[in-house]
Amino acid sequence: MQSRVLTHTTILALVATLSLVGCKKKPTQLGGPTGPGTATGPSAVTPSDIGPGVTIGGPGARPDVTSADLEKRVFAPVYFDYDSAKIKPSEMSKLQAVADALRGNNKKLLIEGHCDERGTAEYNRALGERRAQAALAELKRLGIDASRLSTISYGKERPVDPGHDDTAWSRNRRCEFVPLDR
Amino acid sequence: MKRLLAFVFGLAVFQVAAHAQVTVVKGFQKRLVAVNGFGGSALGARLAEIVANDVRLSGYLGLARADAAEFVQQGNVRSDGSVECFVTHVVTKKMVLSKAYPARGDTRRLAHEISDDMVKAITGQRGIAQTKIACIVKRGRNKELAVMDYDGANARQFSNDGLCAHPRWSPDGTRILYTSYWRNYPDILEVNLLTGQRRVVAQFPGLNSGADYSPDGQLVALTLSKDGNPELYTMNAGGGGLRRLTNTRGAESSPVWSPDGRQIAFVSDERGSPQVYVIGRDGGEPDRLTVSPSYNTEPAWSRPPAGSDMRPMIAVTSRVGGKFQIGLVETLAPGQGVRPVVADGADNEDPSWAPNGRMLVFTKTRNWRSRLYLLDVVTGEELELPALGEGASEPAWGP
């Protein structure tokens, strides 16, 4: 009798488990999702498809930047406090070094603003831009012509440290400096 | 016999579980429908499966067995491939839907049309089964724009830019504005979903992001930093007519139009932590809408259709105790607290309203993996959409 009950219970548990699994998987089966890329429509359009449209920035307003350029991070990043775009006194010497390197030549400089992952996307994109602009303002104060400087905010999209702790976050709240050889 | 018993009991467990999931949630009674399907053919079975899932995702309706249902659906596939669907009120025997649908190649589309007709016939409300959702899909290190059916099916990729963000639909559903790093800088592009053609909408020095079409499609609200820190602007959707709305020491972001197109809600951190403000479409002094919790971002303003039982409201992403939750702001009274609706310890972000003004799609991130979920704000019920590649985020529900 005991073994009978046991069998019974086991089967019930098994059936219940299977039912639950079935429930969970149901959306996947019903959705029948075709992964992106297996698309049949106008997928994977290339940037060259983009027409002239309403380009309003005007030519020369910002230098072209390639992915190779972005690898050239020869300057020390400037770090920020959480949710702040204020340049800390401890970071001033790094900006001084950037300014020194820009004197005596006409190179342009790209300033990237970055955030840690603890914020919503668009708010972080705005915060990253403010960080880049704070660095830009400081370089301007140090005598660099603003026409040589441009900004990119990546928000939280390009962390340098993939971790999810205080150390990673403090390394990711930063400005990077990319010299452009033109 | 023992085996049979076990099987029957197991089935009952399943039924009860399925039943409990869709009936009374937080005091709201869904209209329960028994979906009997469309006969035994392969097409009939496929239609029944999709319609049942639509009922499950509809908000207004719930699935039930015939003996527990208020309405019974019946249907069949005729020899010429056309489909009939009938919905009857069980108690009064009144037939509320009796409709024939011509044969069609696209089974999913036909099923969604039937589902929306059922919602309309039973509740008088607009269904969402024929709508689409745009989102950002993760592909290796890249993030690209994708568009799928509202139930997660038929996902298609519409960009190959490396990094994309913040998709927003044109009111007619033919185009999407999004932020693209296609030339490494954040620009605003528009893609035509019918042709795949794209155009540059804003490409100023600095930040170009957060674009949102006005309800009439004539204007675009956006964030630009060309004049200093990130500020709010509007421009003509076709280009030109740029107008600056704010002038603050902080950063403005995430503009969203009111349903009547007269106001714009947005995020500003001018007074410290980010909060939601409302400003007239022509500028002026903004009203601070939210005061607590200390971090409210990503406002999404619902646009329930005429005749809806829902009122317009604003969904936001709040941060509480280091976690993100979805909350609602139900009036425009200044200085409010936000009522949390998804606060489960995961990170919940990017709310976007269905055109019925009742369902939300949002991103839920657990263990650094992002999935899209639907939320019925009336019942509080959450439903996970099928996984999309390596992760999906920033959903935008189409018109």
Task: Indicate the topology.
The complex is a heterodimer of chains A (182) and B (399).
Chain A: H1 2-31, E1 50-51, H2 67-71, E2 78-79, H3 92-102, E3 108-114, H4 121-141, E4 149-155, H5 166-172, E5 174-180
Parallel strand pairs in A: 3-4
Antiparallel strand pairs in A: 2-5, 3-5
Chain B: H1 2-22, E1 31-35, H2 42-57, E2 61-63, E3 71-77, E4 83-89, E5 95-101, H3 107-123, E6 132-139, E7 142-149, E8 156-157, E9 164-169, E10 175-183, E11 185-192, E12 198-202, E13 208-213, E14 219-224, E15 231-236, E16 243-244, E17 252-257, E18 263-268, E19 275-280, E20 283-288, E21 290-292, E22 296-301, E23 314-320, E24 323-329, E25 336-337, E26 339-342, E27 347-353, E28 359-366, E29 369-376, E30 382-384, E31 392-397
Parallel strand pairs in B: 1-2, 1-3, 21-25
Antiparallel strand pairs in B: 3-4, 4-5, 6-7, 6-31, 7-8, 9-10, 10-11, 11-12, 13-14, 14-15, 15-16, 17-18, 18-19, 19-20, 22-23, 23-24, 24-26, 27-28, 28-29, 29-30
Structural notes for this entry:
The complex is a heterodimer of chains A (182) and B (399). Chain A has 182 residues and is of the alpha+beta class. In chain A, 41% of the residues lie in helices and 14% in strands. Chain A is built from five helices and five strands, in the order αβαβαβαβαβ. A four-stranded mixed β-sheet of chain A has the order 2-5-3-4. In chain A, helix 4 links the parallel strand 3 and strand 4 (149-155). Chain A starts with a helix and ends with a strand. Residues 1-48 and 51-60 of chain A have low confidence and may be disordered. With 399 residues, chain B is mainly beta. In chain B, helix 2 packs across helix 3. At the A-B interface, helix 1, strand 1, helix 4 and strand 4 of A face helix 1, helix 2, strand 7, strand 8 and strand 10 of B.
